[in-house]
Design brief:
By secondary structure, the protein is mainly β. Helices cover 0% and strands 64% of the residues. It has no helices and 11 strands. Strands 2, 4, 5, 6, 9, 10 and 11 form a 7-stranded mixed sheet that branches. A hairpin with a 6-residue loop joins strand 4 and strand 5.
């Protein structure tokens, strides 16, 4: 199983970017998928993501991005997106895609991380 993230770049404050993350490989089911970020000198921070359960999908956001970022998912493509608007310099970080995926026979649930994509917001 691999996670491939894309869409990062350099943008001015107030601008927008759209990140994508595709999960590929021998996937039985995706229990959760989302985005984390790590700014220079700071710890990993949860940004947004979805967890799937019996009651359906549950999308959560970090308080710092609520109202500005929108998380979405295309189950048919095993892809998640992060639409980022009203970007601020403090959003500058490497953004990582992460997922909890059951794969193999029998399916075993594991955590996976993508390679990260740089988002830089200039003031």
């Amino acid at each position: 199983v691999q996670l491939q993230a894309s869409g990062g770049g350099l943008v001015q404050a107030g601008g927008f970017l759209r990140l994508s993350c595709v999960a590929s490989g021998s996937i039985f089911s995706i229990k959760g998928m989302g985005w984390y970020r790590q700014a220079p000198g700071k710890q990993h921070e949860f940004v947004a993501g979805v967890s799937s359960g019996d009651s359906g999908d549950n999308i959560k956001y970090a308080e710092s991005v609520k109202g500005r970022f929108t998380f979405s998912r295309d189950n048919a493509k095993n892809t998640v997106y992060l639409q980022m608007a009203s970007l601020k310099p403090e959003d500058t970080a490497v953004y990582y895609c992460a997922a909890v995926i059951a794969s193999g026979i029998p399916p075993i649930r594991q955590n996976y991380w993508g390679q990260g994509t740089q988002v830089t917001v200039s003031s």
